[in-house]
Amino acid sequence: MPSSNQANPAHNPNATKNASDLEAKRLERTSVLPGWDAEKVAQTHVAIVGSGGLGSPLLLGLVASGIGRITLYEHDTIELHNLNRQILYSRPDVGQPKAETAKKKLQALGDTTIDLAGTFEPNTHIDADIMIDASDNFRTRYLIADASLDMPCVWGSVLQYGGQVGVFPPGHSLRDLYPEPPSNPPSNAIGVLGPVAHVIGSMMAVETLKLALDLGQPAQLSVYDALSATTKQYRLR
């Protein structure tokens, strides 16, 4: 019969060591990258709004890379039409809350601490190192822009066969790029190619990790066009 320590990993002094050894082994292909600092990444706290088409690949990329803590703002439930692009979920998840489902699946991947924060409301106080806007409507986007002026903010959007990724330094926001909300029709009216959302979400994860490590140059505005297979870079005035 096992001892109480063996039966309960929380009281096993080797449990934490074994878990950290497992995580180090999982991340060994990342840890050999030039300029990579696993400890810095593990100490980084990001706030993310949205776990849908952009948020799914973004969250997977960050947890897979060993990000330390995520505060996730999400209040939607999973619908069948989400599944062409929201790769965190599958058909058995339809009808379930996105946030709880995402947390369960992400914790099966890595050791990231994930806090669920519900809806992103006006005057929300953000306690994080980096803000990430993976939302899907401009009302929320401008709330995020106004609430995150004292920290870097990674922003992405996707529509049909293309998308955009931007990184706003402290003191700047989406309002510098779009002072007024663009008049784009909603994605449910003109569509989104799922893999394009995956490209943009993954680019957002890369920019977030670069910020965490102070590695390379952050994108100011990257515009991706899948049909021409091009990514153009723009500098913001």
UniProtKB/TrEMBL annotation:
Q: Spell out the Gene3D superfamilies in the cross-references.
A: NAD(P)-binding Rossmann-like Domain
Identify the domain of life: Bacteria
One Pfam entry name:
ThiF
Q: Where is this region: Disordered?
A: 1-21
Q: Which UniProt keywords apply?
A: Nucleotidyltransferase, Transferase
| Tagged with keyword Ribosomal protein | no
Q: Where in the sequence does UniProt note compositional bias of the Polar residues kind? A: 1-19
Ranges for domain THIF-type NAD/FAD binding fold: 38-233
A GO cellular component annotation here is: cytosol
Question: What Gene Ontology molecular-function terms does this entry list?
Answer: nucleotidyltransferase activity; sulfotransferase activity; thiosulfate-cyanide sulfurtransferase activity; ubiquitin-like modifier activating enzyme activity
Q: Which residues cross the membrane?
A: none
Name of protein: Putative adenylyltransferase/sulfurtransferase MoeZ
Point out the gene that encodes the protein. moeZ1
